[in-house]
Amino acid sequence: MANSAQARKRARQAASARLHNMSQRSEFRTAVKRVLKAVEAGDKAAAAEVFKAASSTIDRIADKGIFHKNKAARHKSRLAAAVKAMA
Prior knowledge:
- The chain is mostly helical and 87 residues long.
- It has one domain (5-84): Methane Monooxygenase Hydroxylase, Chain G, domain 1 (Up-down Bundle), CATH 1.20.58.110.
- α1 packs antiparallel against α2 (44-63), α1 packs parallel to α3 (69-84) and α2 (44-63) runs antiparallel to α3.
- It contains 3 helices and no strands.
């Protein structure tokens, strides 16, 4: 357990940051799932629209450092390939 005031404050900050990061990771995963679901449904127009929104979400989360930029780029690339393959 934290003994100094500084350590107690850092523990509080870490806990709140953890909760925020968890919600951001969840948002990332949800965005990816939405694109995959649209691809499976076979609706190319909807998949392209959802991919555009997901791409923005993925970039925003990577910019905050929740995920590495290369991980974000990898996911975007694979989603884009899946949408493009629908043709």
